[in-house]
Amino acid sequence: MWAVSAIRAAPSRAPGRCAHSALAQLRGILEEELEGIRGAGTWKSERVITSRQGPHIRVDGVSGEILNFCANNYLGLSSHPEVIQAGLKNLKEFGAGLSSVRFICGTQSIHKNLEAKIARFHQREDAILFPSCFDANAGLFEALLTQEDAVLSDELNHASIIDGIRLCKAHKFRYRHLDMADLEAKLKEAQKHRLRLVATDGAFSMDGDIAPLKEICQLASRYGALVFVDECHATGFLGATGRGTDELLGVRDQVTIINSTLGKALGGASGGYTTGPGPLVSLLRQRARPYLFSNSLPPAIVGCASKALDMLMEDNSIVQSITAKTQRFRSQMQAAGFTISGVNHPICPVMLGDARLASSMADDMLKRGIFVIGFSYPVVPKGKARIRVQISAVHSEEDIDRCVKAFVEVGRLHGALP
Q1: What are the tens digits of pLDDT across the range 144-188?
Q2: Which residues form the Aminotransferase class I/classII large domain (predicted)?
Q3: Which of 2, 10, 267, 313 is the most exposed place for a label (fewest CB within 10 A)?
Q4: What mean pLDDT comes out for the span 90-103?
């Protein structure tokens, strides 16, 4: 009897040993991968901010006030008193959250009001909210396109566009960055498909360059294609009234679909949206998986974003302010000898090439009271490391001049400048 019990008990110990072995194997694989990242000089550390977001912040472990030059806080509304108050008002009136997705019991009047406001802002038929623009991009292509269709994507589009396109069954074409001849060749090749959708960032977040929407729209018209633009790094501050790159380049009536964010210029919290034809928005409410299976946007965030839009629609003078400050930074940096990518966009990538150089210079900038971050592979291609500087409307001219001075000092220290 004892022998039988022992035999029966033995297998119960084996799964535990296997599980332990599997976990040990996983740890070894992960540590090797992490060590490879450290060895390549592309390790990303997270600095801890101990204050509100803004042009002047406090950072854990660093004494004194720090100038922040790497936030997407383009209009400086992330901590604006009116925006905060609007969030508090909604928090008190509508609660912390809905504990539900939209189609069950997660749609409040404030969600519908914000969607209508977004559609008016962009002069489109309708709009739909998502937890983020990453989710908007993840939901759009799969819901809209089938194996009968084709999507043509700029090779440097944001990761969320790339991932969203991967999820759909459409035939996929990738054209060279901003290369209209290559796009035309791909459009010719895609003529046999039912729908043809050209997908592009309006402004490219790593390079600060702007899609040639006028030429894209001309090609789309010639070859019977639709145009989709991700406006995350344009909404609120590009164009005469901050409507984005379609306004900047005079093609508002030729862009079919816009996806954008509430987490950058429009309050800086989170949330994204799609705006465009009414039937498309209705289809997304039925089929977009990130919309159907994610909780509704929290009321406080809805209130903050709604107030930010109100402020922008009432007075767009802040748009002109950020344009002038962007030019001030770019011109001074170029005069000092730095290479700045892009043209007239508040994203001002200081091109350095080497990942360790970008990281070391960013660390030394912090020692001089300037918060910037080095970007390297896989966020940008190998050999194209940079420090991405972002200008905000609430930076003063003195802030900008101080940042340039620090760059010159650090650049010379590391041999990036003569």
Answers
A1: 999 999 999 999 999 999 999 999 999 999 999 999 999 999 999
A2: 65-406
A3: 2
A4: 98
Q: CA 204, CA 232: separation in Å to the nearest integer?
A: 9
**Contact, 175 vs 186, CB < 8 A?**
yes
Pairing of strands 196-201, 150-154: parallel
pLDDT tens-digit profile of 278-325?
999 999 999 999 999 999 999 999 999 999 999 999 998 888 889 999
Angle, vertex CA 97, rays to CA 92 and CA 100, nearest 5: 145
Beta bridge partners of 57: 66
Q: What letters, b where the CB count within 10 A reaches 16 and e where it falls short, cover 120-139?
A: ebbebebbbbbbbbbbbbbb
Could you give the residue numbers annotated as active site? 205, 233, 264
Q: Quick one: DSSP state of residue 149?
A: -
Place of tokens 């003063």: 396
The CATH topology of domain 45-74+316-414 is Aspartate Aminotransferase, domain 1 (3.90.1150)
Ranges in the chain annotated CATH 3.40.640.10: 81-314
Per residue in 73-85, pLDDT tens? 999 999 999 999 9
DSSP state of 40: T
Q: Answer positive or negative: Cα dihedral of 131, 135, 136, 139.
A: negative
- For 42-87, the DSSP string reads -----PPB-S-SSSEE-BTT--S-EEE-S-S-TTS-TT-HHHHHHH
Q: Which amino acid is at 388?
A: R
- Domain 81-314 fold is Aspartate Aminotransferase; domain 2 (3.40.640)
What is the side-by-side order of every strand in the sheet holding 385-390?
Answer: 347-353, 385-390, 373-375
Phi, psi of 44 (to 5 degrees): -110, 115
CB 229 within 8 Å of CB 203: no
Which residue is listed with tokens 């702007």? Answer: 210
DSSP readout, 167-214?
HS-SEEEEE-TT-HHHHHHHHHHTTTSS-EEEEEESB-TTT--B--HH
How many helices and strands, by DSSP H and E, does the chain display? 15, 13
Q: Where are the strands (E) in 94-195, listed by range?
A: 126-130, 150-154, 171-175
- The Cα 394–Cα 387 span in angstroms is 20
